[in-house]
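ARCHIVE CARD
CATEGORY: sequence design from structure
SOURCE FIELD: tokenized fold
FIELD CONTENT:
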């Protein structure tokens, strides 16, 4: 064991609009000792996610440990299935140490694939990438040549959608993001055919310009005006995989758009929500599909790594404001 004190982040207040650091507290406690059937892990990587913002409005209990996807290393074990040094994926995030039991809440021992960096397991090969894969293959049933639009394209799910759609032989891939630098990254580094900064004007007009002949499919990470723009640009029998609504999470207001929802009927569009937790059975298929591309170097995890557990709250708030390129992760400085 490398340290005797553990740190846990707790939510202390319900935010209105964007959360601030004062909505959280770092709480110290002694490192817990593993009881029979459990193992103590020291966490190495933490994922902070947009859904945590939704949970801050009620699902996160105040002044109590929070949940989040995390990768830890076993430092002491009384679980026969785990040995010192093993890596464990679990959901007791936002803390430096956790007692884990294999099985519940998807807690599982990680058997790393050769040549795949650890950061991949909480990004493109984890729930983030699985969300993208399920949206494309199950919800949109993407066919080779289908033209695709994805919003929040430079984030975790967005970059995974772009990379996986290319592997699935999508047609034109168009993305939106919140800065000129992100737009340049999408086209220059990630192979997007076109991209635009949604701050440059009406999203509807910007998308119509970036995809002048329309789109067949849309992965929606943002909602509101982005969803309205996609409905306007979709061709007949277009499909929408609605994954998230980051444009709404910090406003406290219901969205004004889409105002053109009836085009879903007039163009025979199919709009379907996606919840990754309903598709964990696809993880094996997804790994078989993606791991060879990660090993060959054709695909790399797109991540912004923030160093040090003490910066986890800043990383979370920064992500909500667009500070990340790819999936935001926090890595233990130890
Ligand atoms: N349904 C599911 O099972 C599931 C699973 C995972 C994620 N999700 C959803 O997928 C979306 C992306 O999640 P992620 O983890 O990959 O996060 P992410 O995209 O890596 O990070 C969030 C990004 O949202 C963008 N953003 C923030 N406010 C915005 C606004 N008002 N309008 C447009 N973009 C805004 C920011 O980028 P810019 O600089 O481009 O603004 C920021 O980088 C979220 O909506 C999340 O809730 C859903």
């Amino acid at each position: 064991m490398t340290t005797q004190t553990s740190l846990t982040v707790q939510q202390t207040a319900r935010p209105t609009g964007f959360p601030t650091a004062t909505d959280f507290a770092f709480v110290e406690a002694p490192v817990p000792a593993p009881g029979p059937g459990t193992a103590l892990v020291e966490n190495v990587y933490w994922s902070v996610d947009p859904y945590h913002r939704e949970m801050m409005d009620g699902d996160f209990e105040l002044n109590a440990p929070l949940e989040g996807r995390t990768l830890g290393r076993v430092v002491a074990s009384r679980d026969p299935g785990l040995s010192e040094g093993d890596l464990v994926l679990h959901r007791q995030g936002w803390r430096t140490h956790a007692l884990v039991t294999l099985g519940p809440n998807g807690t599982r021992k990680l058997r790393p694939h050769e040549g795949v960096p650890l950061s991949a397991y909480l990004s493109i090969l984890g729930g983030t990438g699985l969300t993208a894969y399920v949206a494309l293959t199950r919800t949109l049933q993407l066919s080779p040549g289908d033209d695709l639009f994805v919003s929040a394209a430079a984030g975790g799910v967005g970059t995974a959608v772009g990379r996986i759609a290319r592997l699935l032989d999508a047609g034109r891939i168009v993305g939106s993001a919140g800065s000129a630098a992100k737009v340049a990254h999408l086209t220059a580094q990630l192979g997007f055919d076109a991209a635009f900064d949604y701050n440059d004007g009406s999203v509807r007009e910007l998308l119509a310009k970036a995809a002048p002949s329309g789109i067949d499919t849309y992965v929606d990470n943002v909602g509101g005006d982005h969803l309205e723009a996609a409905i306007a640009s979709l061709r007949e029998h277009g499909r929408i995989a609605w994954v998230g609504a980051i444009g709404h999470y910090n406003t406290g207001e219901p969205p004004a758009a889409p105002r053109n929802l009836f085009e879903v009927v007039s163009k025979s569009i199919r709009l379907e929500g996606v919840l990754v937790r309903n598709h964990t059975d696809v993880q094996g298929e997804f790994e078989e599909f993606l791991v060879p591309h990660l090993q060959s170097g054709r695909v790399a995890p797109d991540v912004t790594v923030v160093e040090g557990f003490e910066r986890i709250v800043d990383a979370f708030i920064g992500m909500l404001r667009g500070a990340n390129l790819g999936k935001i992760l926090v890595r233990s400085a130890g």
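CARD ANNOTATION: DSSP finds nine helices and 15 strands in the chain. The longest strand covers residues 39-47.
SHELF: design records, drawer C
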